Each structure stands twice: as C-alpha cells, then as structure tokens.
Amino acid sequence: MARPDDDALSWDGDDDPTLAAAPAATPLPTGYRAVGRGSERLGETRQADAADETPALNEPTGPAPMGNAALVGVGVFTGIYLLLSLGWVLGAGRLQLVAQLFLDPVAYQVTMWLAVLAPPLWFGTVWLLTRRSKLWLRLVLLAAGAVLLVPWPFVLSGASL
Asked: Acidic residues: which segments have biased composition (predicted)?
C-alpha cells in the first residue's frame, strides 16, 4: 500500500506511455533566431531540417540588440533633444523683435526653423550613421550634439516667461 505522502506527488494516469515527457521542438520560421536556455538544441533541429539556401538560425543576421541601459540612455537623449528643440522655439520667440530689426522677416523665419530642426536632424543623423558602430560612439556623438545645440537665446534671456 502506498503512503499518503507518495499519493500527493502523483496523479492518476502518470504512467500513461502516450504522454510525452517534453514537447517536441517545433522549428522556427525563417528569419527568427532562438535564444535562451535550450536554444542550441532548437537551432540544431532547425539546421537539420533547413534547406541549403536558407541561413542557419545561429548565424548573426545583424547588429546585436541594445541592452536595457543603452535603451534608457537613448531615451534620455531623445528627451534632451526634444527639450532642445523646445528651447530653440521659446528662445527664438523672445528674440523675434530684435532679430527682425537686423534681418528680413523671411530670413528670420528660415533661420529660426533651421535652429528648431537642428536637434532632431542631429539625432536622426547620428542614429542612422551609427547603426553598425559601437554603442559608445553613438552615445558620445549624441552627447556632443546635446552640448553643441544648446539653445543660447533661451539660456541667455533667462527662464522667465
């Protein structure tokens, strides 16, 4: 007779031979890569089933994804660049009367909008040109742009509205 403790650890029908111990690994669709524990077993299964013209799943298909710290850093720089654009809008609005004394109104509008668009253009350019570069290079260029594109009219006129 089984002890009551052993009954708690079993289920009626556990000895059924048709139950699989582990589910069979299904191959991933083309273009996907298995990661994590047991991924090498899935990759071997997929490689054995794959035709010669499709790349193996374990081959790198592009740059490695960014980690959490890198995503947070890029998010912080995105916010900084949005604030820089806002600073250029506010700073240029304060200097509008003085600037239009020395510039043609159309020239003032063109230069103001170029200044407002400079931070997003810098961010997008750095983002596109450093896709395959090291992460530190991308972050250094984003930091350099944040320093170079400071909205001086806003900073020098003060923060009073």
From this structure: 7-17
